[in-house]
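Protein modeling request. Please complete all fields; requests missing the sequence field cannot be processed.
Requester role: graduate student
Desired output: 3D structure, token encoding
Chains: 1
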Amino acid sequence: MLKQKSDIVIIGSGISGLTAAILLLRKGYSVKILEAHYKPGGYMHAFEKMGHLYDSGAHYVGALAEKEPFWALLNYLDVYSPDIFCPLDPEAFDTFQFHNQKVSEVSYGKGYERVLDHFCELFPKEKSNIIRFFDEVKKVARNFPTYEFLVDYNQQFLLNSLETSLQQVVERHTQDKELQNVLYAYCGLHGVMPGEVSFGLHCIIVDSLIRSGGYGFRGSGDALAQKFVEKIESLGGEIILKEKVTHFEIESGKIQSVATRRGNVYPADQFIFCGHPKDMLEIAGPEHFRKPYRQRIANTPESIGIMGLYGVAKRHSIGNIKRNYYQLENPLPKEMIPDQPVSSTPFISFMTFPDRETPVDADELAFSVHAPQFYPWVDEWKDKKNYSRDEAYQALKETMSENIFRFLDSFGFSMKQNTLRYETSTTLTNKRFNLSPQGSAYGIYHSISYTGARALSGRTKIENLFISGQNTLFPGIMAASIAGLRTTGFIIGIKEHIGKIRTYMD
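Delivered output (506 residues):
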């Protein structure tokens, strides 16, 4: 069925698409958002298992204190509400635990002063190096135009930070192997190894958390998604669910319309694709793109997949619900490691709590754990419709679950004995959810080769087709929202928005 023509159709209702919709609607464009799933929000989704809500991707965020970057952006979009967010423990919202180190536990609390005092106490001989390193982190982060919302900035300084790896900077500041491993620890949050991640983008992640502390969601990220939906609908935008786009109608180098699995056709003047660029290429048809662009997309590596373990434990058995816990081997790999055998234990895991305000007198507590999972482990089931019922697949999941429990228990958690029940997901689950080719939680592998000046542009080789989302910038809902801002810049300009957002911070 042919639908009424819009000025702009946005494909995907993650936070980048929702951000773009608000900005475009304010400029008077008519906007439709097509979403393949039954509810909007992308990685802000929550799902229910075993009587509890679990986050799919947005476990916690930073830069949310008053006048900080994400707070300013959400206020500019008119979707901020303090009731949505729950501040985490200011003394230690992130705790990192290490194997084979004398300094076996390090925490990040709110504010640089608190972090510096803690680190210098743990590594007293490295005090001057620690201070210099975090001064550099702060200086680099404060120079990012779409993080600090700056019209004027030092472009060469920015480019230098984007062309330098975290490993290079850390090794320039310290030769202490344990401190190096500690300074690499946040690679577990964005999924890029220290020898391959841009120092500049790593600085944004670290700075966003230190400067205002971490924030979880009250209930789930669905509440933030709903605020976006309400704003979009109040501006006259339309979000259409269960509409998976399967085809682009292209004539004379321009998209005329998109068709969905349900047989509906949506014409528009311009289109924004917020999914994985490899999916975009497949849907549009590779023949409509120049060979170098096709090759670049095809050769872009994927980030490591994730296995999720969602559990319910005895209420007071496994830690502080206002904190996140990371477990890491020493040394952390400097580069993305090759495929490992299924029997191997994780080299890193992340444990968090979806309900940050579970009552003290509650009998049980929901938790989730995520650990790397390589796609080849589940590749043989990718084309099986009922793969989840396959006995071998279930056996694989059980093996990996046991590996994760043993890994956690080796850090003193006693997880297995205190877990009442649990369920798991694999990269195949993620592939079905986010439609990326290998179910990677972070989309493309955001190494130096795919960030900064080398990042995928929001403008494609088709005149009226643009892309947005984490694949064009960096993982995380703040980064994805900023990606929506950047992509709309090709249509309506960006400097005006940058200047206005900055006023919220001044």
